[in-house]
Specification:
There is one protein chain. The chain has about 170 residues and is mainly alpha-helical. About 35% of the residues lie in helices and about 10% in strands. It has seven helices and two strands; from the N terminus they run ααααββααα. A two-stranded antiparallel ribbon has the order 1-2. The longest helix has 13 residues, at about 50-65. It starts with 12 loop residues before the first helix and ends in a 16-residue tail after the last helix.
């Protein structure tokens, strides 16, 4: 059976990211960790996930460097799971996904919203360019080939701003 992922997509940062968090239980576990859950029994009770599935997902999160296992009890040895810096860096992604999900619902039908911790005012997260402060979700920002792009990526993005129209490579 042929692979579902085209060869040129394997270098794509989206493919890489989905390799780490693309399984839906993974995002739900990360959401729980962002909300302060740390222990296996807490995840299991909150998510209603089987022990074997949770064990596998936690192992993958640890192996991928998003969580670390830290012992909290000696007899018997028990572990809790804490975010690494890499795991913490996914919080904006989880916030953006939740906001996108909420944007499809009537405000009265949303079960979870993002609020300012001090004021309690609802927040509306947007993704902006750090340098300019401009929103990046419109047509005025596009993907283009990066410095490590393969020939298929350079071809795909050949006519985009920032890529040379002849080689498809970013300008020097």
């Amino acid at each position: 059976m042929p692979s579902k992922i085209r060869l040129e997509d394997r270098e794509c940062p989206l493919s890489t990211a989905l390799g780490h968090v693309g399984e839906w239980w993974t995002l739900l576990i990360l959401h729980d960790v962002f909300d302060g859950f740390r222990r296996f029994d807490q995840f299991q009770a909150n998510l209603g996930i089987s022990s074997s599935m949770l064990t596998g997902r936690l192992k993958t999160l640890v192996d991928n460097g998003l969580l670390e296992r830290v012992p909290y009890q000696d007899r018997p040895v028990r572990y809790e799971y804490r975010l690494t810096e890499l795991g913490r860096s996914l919080r904006p992604v989880v916030v953006a996904l939740a906001a996108w999900g909420n944007s499809r619902l009537d405000p009265s039908g949303r079960s979870m919203i993002l609020v300012d911790a001090e004021t309690g005012e609802e927040a509306e997260p947007v993704l902006v360019d750090r340098g300019t402060g401009r929103r990046v979700d419109g047509d005025d920002f596009v993907f283009t080939a990066g410095p490590a792009a393969s020939e298929p990526f350079r071809t795909r993005y050949r006519d985009r701003p920032g890529s040379s129209p002849v080689t498809g490579e970013p300008p020097a």
